[in-house]
Amino acid sequence: MNEFKELNIGDEAPDFAMPSVDRKEFRLYDELKKGPILLNFYVGDFGINCTTYMMRMIELAPSFEKTGVRIFTINPDGLESHKVFRERLNSPYDHIHDIGQEVSKAYGAIIEDSPIVKGFTNREFFLIGTDRKIRYIWRAPVPKVLPNMDEIVSDIGNII
């Protein structure tokens, strides 16, 4: 049984304030005033799977830009780790430090059914509209399942 609240399409996205690589404080509701946001929760910096799909996200940056959606990545790794990971990949996306996994927990983005990575932040995407409502969700059923980034871009393009 999931001990964290599972958010659904149509729910109001929980607000949060956390430091990011580009901002002393990233505050979700303030950023939503500038347009819709895709939050990309992921397990960790430098992992082979996370690196693989992050590289695909970077390749698709122009396609995401056409939708008008801004992407922010988030996990509990520290800002220094995020900076190095972002620089190594030449990522255009801001990386948010989820201190104490507070945001992952608020979004229910926690792995619970794995003996190896139980308690880690899961691989999940939440598209949040300017009205603060969740418009799209993709969740990895198990940590090693990678998203089809082309499908996510297409889905988002059809929603926005």
Distance linking N and C termini? 33 Å
The rounded Rg comes to 14 Å
- Structural class comes to alpha/beta
Helix content bin: 25-40%
Q: SSE order in H/E notation?
A: EEHEHHEHEHEEH
Strand fraction: 15-25%
Describe the overall structure:
The protein is of the alpha/beta class and 160 residues long. The chain has six helices and seven strands, in the order ββαβααβαβαββα. Strands 5-4-3-6-7 form a five-stranded mixed β-sheet. The chain has a two-stranded antiparallel sheet with strand order 1-2. The longest helix is centred in the middle third of the chain and has 12 residues, at 48-59. The protein is globular. The protein starts with 16 loop residues before the first strand and ends with a helix.
Strand and helix map with partners:
Blueprint (H helix, E strand, L loop, with lengths): L16 E2 L7 E2 H5 L4 E5 L6 H12 L1 H7 L2 E6 L3 H11 L4 E4 L4 H5 L17 E5 L5 E6 L9 H11 L1
Parallel strand pairs: 3-4, 4-5
Antiparallel strand pairs: 1-2, 3-6, 6-7
Condensed summary:
This protein is of the alpha/beta class and 160 residues long.
Please supply descriptive tags for the structure shown above.
160 residues, alpha/beta, two-stranded antiparallel sheet, 7 strands, 32% helix, globular
